[in-house]
Write a structure and sequence with these properties.
This protein is an alpha+beta fold and 128 residues long. Helix content is 24%, strand content 30%.
C-alpha cells in the first residue's frame, strides 16, 4: 500500500505530497488552486525502475530510470531516460492494487491518466 511520506523540504505540503511502499513511489504536485498539476509514479523501486511522468496539458511519458553520470565532487543522481516506452496495462493494475490509502481525487486522476496513456500507446505503437 502506498503510504504518505513526511515532507522534509522547503516545498509546502499543499504544493507537493509523496507516497511510497517497498515497490512504488508517487509524488504529486498541485497548482495554486489545489488542483493536480503533475505527478511522477515510479515502479519497481531499487530494481529495474520505470517512471510515469505526467504534467497537465501534455502527454504522459513512461521512461526508464537509470544511474546518472557521476560528476567529480557530486553525489550520483538518478536520471530519467529519453526513450518513451509503451505503458503496459499491468502497471495500471499494480497502481490500483496499492492505491487504497490515497485520497480519492489523486487515485482517480492517476488511474484516468494511466488509462489514457495505455490507449494512446496502443494507437501510436510507441515501441514499433
Amino acid at each position: 500500500m502506498l503510504k504518505p511520506l513526511p515532507n522534509n523540504s522547503l516545498v509546502a505540503e499543499r504544493d507537493r505530497c509523496s507516497y511510497a511502499d517497498g515497490d512504488m513511489s508517487l509524488t504529486v504536485w498541485f497548482d495554486e488552486n489545489d488542483e493536480i498539476f503533475a505527478f511522477e509514479l515510479v515502479f519497481d523501486l531499487l530494481l529495474d525502475e520505470y517512471a510515469v511522468r505526467h504534467t497537465r496539458g501534455k502527454l504522459g511519458k513512461y521512461l526508464n530510470v537509470s544511474e546518472g553520470e557521476l560528476k567529480p565532487g557530486r553525489i550520483q543522481k538518478q536520471v530519467l531516460g529519453s526513450q518513451n516506452h509503451y505503458l503496459p496495462s499491468s502497471r495500471l493494475k499494480s497502481f490500483e492494487d496499492r492505491a487504497d490509502n490515497l485520497p480519492r481525487k489523486i487515485r482517480e486522476h492517476i488511474s484516468e491518466s494511466l488509462l489514457r496513456m495505455i490507449a494512446e500507446g496502443e494507437q501510436t505503437k510507441i515501441d514499433d
